[in-house]
Structures are given as structure tokens and as C-alpha cells.
Design goal:
Keywords: Membrane, Transmembrane, Transmembrane helix. This is EpsG family protein. This protein is an all-alpha fold. The chain has one domain. The chain has 21 helices and no strands.
Length: 361
Amino acid sequence: MKNLALRKNSASMGASRTGSGEPPYLLTPAGWAFVLLASYVIWFLVTSGRPVPTLPDQDSYLEYFQLTGPDWFSDYVQRHPLGLGFIPRIITDELGWRLWIILVNWFGFTPDGAIRLTVGLANGLVFCSLARLRRPLLGLVLWIVIPTALAVTGLYQIRQGFAFGVAMMFCVVLRRPVLGLLIASTIHTTMAFPAILLIVARLSGPNNRIAIPAVGIAGALLSLSAPMLFDAFGGRRIADYAGYQAEFSVNLLVLMLSYCFASALLIMSIRYVRPLYMRSPLRELGLMHLGLIAYLVCAFLFFPFGKDRVFYLISLLLPFFLQEIRVRSTITLWMTAVLYVMIMADVYLAYQKGVFYYFVG
């Protein structure tokens, strides 16, 4: 009876890599390769040149760090008194991002140094999160090669990358997905959409037959409300996104739909996930992923501008999901094969378009 109680207690705590006699991951050759590759990527990002003409939006980020100081926040509070109306402004005005700038500037970083610090930290948070899952080296390689990951979000879409890194740290390492997405939405408003879907997934309960339709409906409703939300909170930038409607092609939609295999396979593999305490946050992320795809489908039909607010998140989650997929049948094998083929096709097309020029010239 005593041994049985010990086994139950061990199962409730989750199985570690060392629980079955295996050495800690970072002491294995794959672990060494993960640490070396992750360290090199961060070193490269922090030390390489960041010419303003070749990296989009770099002048805007330099202005963020030049113009935002302690006086900015005090002036903001004077213009927007604290109260119930202040709560949504925390997200819509991205106060988390502003507070991060104030903190970095307080330590005396130059604007260029602050950008390098933020980029390195954003990718470091992603790498720490990847390291907590089943096959970190696979996740790291996927993060490097998936076009919207390192080459875009991890390089020059700094707010999105920083918000995503914070979100993944809370989701995977701290196992607080909803809190993580809410904090991330104060850094970049985009994260408010997946945060809502994550809350729906949490409230839907453990039954996938209820949760999957619930997040799908929630994603569709969010997409239908996107024109109103964009007009209220993003209308000043609508001219900047005018070209995105033409970019939202059937090919992009098919690519994103193929990525739903990742969340479907993850949800099917949840019962095999070790440690046990990772099952709930990973399942909720998988459900959120399906909700984002439902959002994208409706955005294609009704509001093409809205696709850019979420589509990159669909591919950014692949390095986390593919680590935990278990191939247990012929159909899961075929789904996994299709998933990897679509990723390779996306990488090839992005390479042809010069997406990786910063790293490969």
C-alpha cells in the first residue's frame, strides 16, 4: 500500500526525464546541441547589425525607446484618470510595453541597446519554454526555419515577439496560460484575441466535444466583430494594412488550414504527455489554436484586414505542438507527414521571397 501511494503521488506530480532513469535532457548530446544552438542564435541577434533601412519598423522602435520615459507615464495618467474606463486602456494602449521601455531606459540602455536586449530576451523566453517540452531541439530547429518565427517575429516584429515570449513563458514554464496571454496583450493588443479564446477553452471544460465547437464559434464571432474592433482601436493604421487584403490568398488560407493538423494531433496526443501537469495547458493551447484557425477562415470571408492580427500566431505555435505529437496510427502518420510537407513548402517559398536574407545574405 505504501508503494502504491508513492506511485500515485509521483504520478500526480508528473513524470520527469529522470524519473525513468534517463539523464537530464541538458546532459545529453541533444541537450548540448540545444544549448549551443540557442546560445548562438541569441548571440547573433544581439551582436549583429540592425540597419534601419533593411529591417522594417526599426525607426519606430527607436522612437519608442527615445520618447518614452517616466514623464510619459505620469502625463498619460493625467490625461486618462484611473477608473473603470482605464482598465481596457491597459490593453488598447499597450501599457505593458510602455512600462517595459521605462524600465529598460531606467537602467541606462541606449535605444539601440534596448532593442537588442528586448530581441534577445524575447527569443530567450521562447527557448526556455521550448526546453520544458518533450523534444526541445526539434522545437528550436522549427523556430529557426518557420518563416514567421525567428526571421520575422524573433527579429524585427519586436513587440509581437516579446509578447509571444512572455505568453509562452507563462503558458509552458509557469503553467498559467490565461494570465500569460492577458499580460502579453498589454504588450501587443493582438494577444487579446487568443486570450479570449483561451478563456473560452478553459470555461468549456474537459469534454472536447463541447470545447472544440465552443472555441470555433468564439473564433468566428471574434472575426465577425473585427471590423468594429479595428475601427475602434486600429483605424488610425488602416492605411498601413491596406495591402494585406490582396496578400490574403487562398494559398495562405490552405496553408493555415493544414496547420490545424498540429492542434488536432496535439489534442489527440494529450493522454500520452508527460509530465502530467503539462496536459491541461497544452490542451488549452491546442483548443485556442483551433479557435484562431476558425477566426482566420471567417476573416478570409468577411474581413481580410483582420487576418494579420492572428495568422502569424498559428505558425508560431508549431514548434511547441510538434514536440508533443505522438504517431500512434496510420492516419496520425499521414497527418504528421502532411504537416511537415506544408512547413517545408512554406520555408521554400519564404526563402524564394528573401524572408531569410538577414541570416543567409
